Amino acid sequence: MPAPVRHLPLLVATLALGQAVGWGTTYYMPSVLAPALARVLGLDPTGIYLGVTIMVALGGLASPFAGRLLDRNGAARLMPVAPIAIGLGHLLVASFPSAITWWAAWVLHGLAMPFGLTLAVTTYLTRTSGASARRTIGILTLLVSFTPTAFWPLTALLDGQLGWRGTLFVYAGLELGLLLPLQIWIGRGWSDRDPVAATAGSGGVPAAPVPTFSPRAKKVAITALVVMFTTQGFASWGLPLHLIALFQEMGLGRAEAVAIASASGAATIAARTIEVGFGHHMRTLTMAVVAVASLTPVLALLVAPIDLTLAAWIFIVVWSGANGILAVLRMTLPLTLFGAEAYGTLVGRMSLPQNLAFAAAPAIFAMVIQARGTTGALELAIAASLVALVAAIVLARVGRQAERPAPH
Questions:
Q1: Could you tell me which of 57, 79, 322 has the C-alpha nearest to residue 180?
Q2: What secondary structure, in 3-state letters, does 323-376 show?
């Protein structure tokens, strides 16, 4: 049966726990364990982090197929795939450490992505929380934002006490012994085979009607949506890894550069908190356009003739906040524009180019920096953000036309 409204907080908390543990034990894990793993596996840092690239790229490749399965069978029935795949990946590396098993584990983690770390969870919430899906997904994303804050120190603590192998065994136990039963419990208790109708928004306010697109306009809107989030995400995944070096090359001291770059997480969380609390006062599409439109000016601010420290602080707050909100809108804007029907299929198709771009972004930015310095990285980020802005403007125009009542 669909989840009653009174059970949504418990379900959101459970799903957030699953996502936090999933991301914390995979994507964020090498940041702490890479030195120890490199010695044992005989890999350099590039070989270690290749696992993350495999995960993100394979997750994108699997998303279109996963999306169709989620729409056809319900997301709740398939979410247990994620803890099984991640847990088995950790057991594989901990039991038989080698470069081959390391990369094989990340293949399993990549298969887990659409079934429990991203697509399945948002699909489930769109089908069970009705018109409050935007706010519910926002709350979930806000809770998951604290993942690195929790898992970086936890991984370091476990590594210090148990070593890298013991850490992976503990994480396998969390996936298979805690999250797997919880996912099965959700699937048995609250099926999403029959989506809840979006009849009322938060606080009982009627939900905004889904725009009515012509077939051609819908294709244009979907294309613009994909281009906007792919190019914006390319910059937001590629540039932040090099921010400290960029700030230092511009003239900031290392301590100051680290302090400013470290504020990114707090700015992201603050922006998502504001979106959850007050986002329902602004149309989702309008918020997306405003967020995308803010990216290019703050990038240009870094080369503007103003105080460098002030420019860097403004940049980190606006850039991180806008990208934090856009990470939520990447999941909720397709729902707003096209409705809950076939949500999994649509977002699964969208995830393919997005994840491939996200996976390639860090390496591409590194190559650009090596060839042209941090100036080249800024120019690449500005170019990507401008393309995203053009796509956002096209999407807004097509969306406004679809919202107009048909002439009688």
A1: 79
A2: HHHHHHHHHHHHHHHHCCCCHHHHHHHHHHHHHHHHHHHHHHHHHHHHHHHHHH
Residue 206 DSSP one-character state: B
Confidence tier at 148 by pLDDT (50, 70, 90)? confident
Q: pLDDT, tens digit, for every residue of 96-117?
A: 999 999 999 999 999 999 988 8
Alpha-carbon torsion, ordered 358, 360, 376, 233, to 10 deg: -10
What CA dihedral angle connects 118, 150, 109 and 80, to 10 degrees?
-60
B/e letters for 124-141, b = 16+ CB within 10 Å, e = fewer, are: bbbbbbbbbbbbbbbbbb
190 Rama class: left (phi>0) / alpha (psi -120 to 50) / beta: beta
SS3 200: strand
**What whole-number distance in Å separates Cα of residue 233 and Cα of residue 62?**
19
Please answer whether residues 127 and 191 qualify as being in contact, where contact means their C-beta atoms are separated by less than 8 angstroms.
no
Kindly list the structural domains of the chain, giving each domain's residue range(s) and its CATH number in brackets, ordered by start.
5-189 (1.20.1250.20), 208-403 (1.20.1250.20)
Element containing residue 320 per DSSP (H, E): helix 308-338
Token pair for 219: 């294709």
Tens digit of each residue's pLDDT (9 = 90 or more) over 241-287:
677 778 888 888 888 888 888 787 788 888 888 777 776 667 888 88
For residue 321, give the nearest of 277, 301, 291, 280 by alpha carbon: 291
Would you list the DSSP string of 95-130?
HS-SHHHHHHHHHHHHHHIIIIISHHHHHHHHHHSG
Query: Tokens 């590194």 label which residue?
Result: 366
Report the C-alpha gap between 317 and 269 in whole angstroms.
Answer: 11
Which tokens hold the place of 149?
């804050």
Is 219 in contact with 395 (CB distance < 8 Å)?
no
- Which conformational region is residue 104 in: left (phi greater than 0), alpha (psi within -120 to 50 degrees), or beta? alpha
Q: Which of 21, 137, 31 is nearest to 82 (CA)?
A: 21
Phi, psi torsion values for 59, nearest 5 degrees: -60, -40
Query: Can you give the pTM of this predicted structure?
Result: 0.79
Locate tokens 């009607």: which residue?
Answer: 209
Cα angle: 353, vertex 23, 132; to 5 degrees: 75
Task: Let me know: does 94 contact 163? Beta carbons within 8 Å.
Answer: no
Q: Taking phi first (over 0 means left), then psi (-120 to 50 degrees means alpha), and beta for anything else, what does residue 130 get?
A: left
